[in-house]
Automatic annotation (TrEMBL):
Keyword annotations: Membrane, Transmembrane, Transmembrane helix
Region Disordered, residue ranges: 1-37
Biased composition regions of type Basic and acidic residues, renumbered to the chain: 23-36
Protein's recorded name: Uncharacterized protein
Domain of life per record: Bacteria
TM ranges: 42-61
Provenance organism: Alkalihalophilus pseudofirmus (Bacillus pseudofirmus)
Length: 199
């Protein structure tokens, strides 16, 4: 009788150790299945980076759009920090600008970059661009593509109307705002550029 309980306990221990061994083997097998090969790790990383890049570029394009109504309000105010270079208003019938001169300050000095384009589309009106009375562009045709000019600071930039009732935008990227203006043939707009005052 003494042998039976002992044998019974031994069988239980054997079964328990067999179950334990099976569980350990399963764990080892599943951990081996979870390990990725170097090429799989590289593929996973590449997919993650691509998703991140697409998300960021999607946000950049979605924040740059503005409704025509909001844009018309910005244009009526004559200056905007919201509009990007080359922005074109779809319905230009809402815009009625008169010719105006502007003083633009707080430049670092030296030279500034000036962008100019037709914010109503490709009307192909022509203007002449002068700096301190010297012609830097005899005839510039306004289109929706922004054209860039380097102008000295301090200076007075003059936009002279040559052909067509020109509505245009001027942007000084360094100052981060856009100015909207109009000029008739023979008329002129002056932009007085001044450096920031050093204390």
């Amino acid at each position: 009788m003494n042998k039976r309980p002992y044998m019974h306990n031994e069988k239980k221990q054997n079964k328990a150790s067999q179950v334990k061994n099976l569980l350990n083997e399963e764990r080892e097998g599943s951990s081996q299945k979870r390990e990725l090969t170097p090429s799989a790790k590289l593929a996973r990383t590449a997919i993650g980076l691509l998703a991140l890049i697409l998300t960021i570029s999607g946000m950049a394009f979605s924040t740059g759009t503005m409704s025509d109504e909001a844009a018309a309000d910005e244009i009526a105010n004559r200056t905007s920090t919201e509009m990007e270079s080359g922005f074109v208003l779809e319905d230009a019938s809402q815009v009625a600008l008169n010719s105006q001169d502007f003083a633009v300050g707080n430049f670092d000095g030296g030279t500034a970059r000036m962008l100019i384009w037709d914010f109503t589309g490709d009307s192909e009106d022509r203007v002449q661009i002068m700096v301190d009375g010297q012609i830097i562009r005899e005839s510039h045709t306004l289109t929706s593509n922004a054209a860039a000019y380097s102008v000295p600071v301090p200076s007075v930039v003059t936009i002279l109307g040559l052909e067509g009732q020109a509505t245009y935008a001027v942007k000084f990227p360094e100052r981060k705002y856009t100015i909207f203006n109009a000029v008739a043939p023979g008329g002129a707009n002056a932009y007085t550029l001044t450096p920031s005052v050093v204390p």
